[in-house]
């Protein structure tokens, strides 16, 4: 995915928000069978804004938006501590084999070295995890809960 500026991602978010508002208004009196003809222009307007901002698809926009949230949260919260190999952060990983053991741990992929990240655990780490997050002085203007 190409590097896309924060302002373009925020413009894309405004386009999605406008679509969601218009969509809710279109269906405020209940759902209709099929897709009403008024729906297509709403979608086309949003997609045209995405193209204007440099996004080639909805998926590309939402991936960039999620990456922006992660970047901002990692500026807002400093991870402290050392891994105690409890494995609780890793339970979803396909390479985690249990009892704090990773099948590729010696390779230590970048994602693992950076894990846990604020985006996933700022509201609380698993019990027994030796990491913590401390709020920094960084003030974001981005709604990091937007999706």
Strand fraction equals 5-15%
N-to-C order of helices and strands:
HHHEEEHHE
- Beta-strand segment tally: 4
Average of the residue pLDDT scores: 84
Q: Provide the number of structural domains.
A: 2
pLDDT below 50 for ≥5 consecutive residues: which ranges? none
> Main sheet?
2 strands, antiparallel
Numbering strands along the chain, what is their spatial order in the largest sheet? 1-4
Helical residue percent band: 40-55%
Structural class: mainly alpha
State the shape: elongated
Tell me the radius of gyration. 20 Å
Total number of helical segments?
5
State the end-to-end distance. Answer: 18 Å
List the helices and strands and how they pair.
Blueprint: H1 6-26, H2 39-53, H3 58-76, E1 77-80, E2 96-98, E3 101-102, H4 110-114, H5 118-121, E4 132-135
Antiparallel strand pairs: 1-4, 2-3
Helix pairs in contact: 1-2, 1-3
